[in-house]
């Protein structure tokens, strides 16, 4: 796949200039294309599958081993208000095997007591675990001597996802997982903090929207954005709050093992912006005891006046997906180019005015935890320039739900995640059809 950087200069004094060809720079990007062949190290037929779907978590059995252990440090993250932090996992198995693996679960309590009540279930035995891990690594990853010693040290990059975490050691591989040890609990200092802002152009040229995720429902705290011109007067704009439930999902895995509470998604509208002006902003929540919770500070440049002589640099791509910087899910080799693409965009951010991500956004495919990880991955981009999305088959398609194709590509999400996690200036967000002019660029 390729990324197209489109530059267009408009000069109203000479209308003929608007008919000049667009200058198109093609940046080669190692973006994996869904369904584009077999990945290295993955059996034929598995390539392109969401890596978490390779885990038969519903088949897990309990075989706790007193001689096995798994310990994680530090156990309290985000003391410096960081939303991303690395942890060290030390594990020991008395019967090490090449298919031993460590899964990260969030919330930390993942036993059968968390399983939803099912009506008319004819299964003879209920599953012991009803939620998929949010990521995993094999025990011998970066530990060549594990089979000999039974000891390994792994590193995981954790992001704040509104709940605590625990790490579980399994034997039996992904297809027949046997739980042998569970770690201590790890959490962020404020798991409910406002995080991962996503800018989007509003319906008007001088309007910017900011969407973010937090753990605060509207009955716990009032969401808002404090913003204003750099070094100028700051004002506050309120935000609306959305969320959804398991029953809003159309099928499995989104409704079953892939379900994870999405938190609360807030959107604020910043209006009557001055053209080409730099604005600073930060996300805020006012608790009902009068205290405030703040995000870190961000900034963006407002759009030019329509028709103004300006150079607009527009990135257009699709099918990016997400990947893990800590090497998790590494045997899947799933969407390996997404970090390369993300990092290239971050590196060239000063030369980008707007991003259009046209469909197949996260490839979460019904594993909801992956949307948090995607918004964390693109935060340096989406917090600084408008990140406009459209829906693809991996966001929307599900049988008998009105999608264009009657496939199961969304994993049961049926568009709910995409239309809630991101703002689009459409009259009907479920339709995802909209036209957006950027200084007359359409």
Mean pLDDT: 86
What is the rounded distance between the termini?
22 Å
Number of DSSP strand runs: 23
CATH architectural group of the largest domain: Sandwich
Please identify the structural class as seen in this structure. Answer: mainly beta
Count of DSSP H/I helices: 5
How would you characterize the overall build of this protein?
The longest helix has 14 residues, at 369-382. This protein is globular. It contains five helices and 23 strands. The strands form five sheets. Strands 13, 14, 15, 16, 17, 18, 19 and 20 form an eight-stranded antiparallel beta sheet that branches. Strands 2-1-21-22-23 form a five-stranded mixed beta sheet, with no helix packed on it. By secondary structure, it is mainly beta. The protein folds into two domains: 2-36 and 192-421, Sandwich (Immunoglobulin-like), CATH 2.60.40.10; 63-188, Immunoglobulin-like. Its EC number is 3.1.3.2.
Short descriptors:
eight-stranded antiparallel beta sheet, mainly beta, five-stranded mixed beta sheet, Immunoglobulin-like, Metallo-depent_PP-like, Purple acid phosphatase, PAPs_N, EC 3.1.3.2, acid phosphatase activity, 442 residues, 5 helices
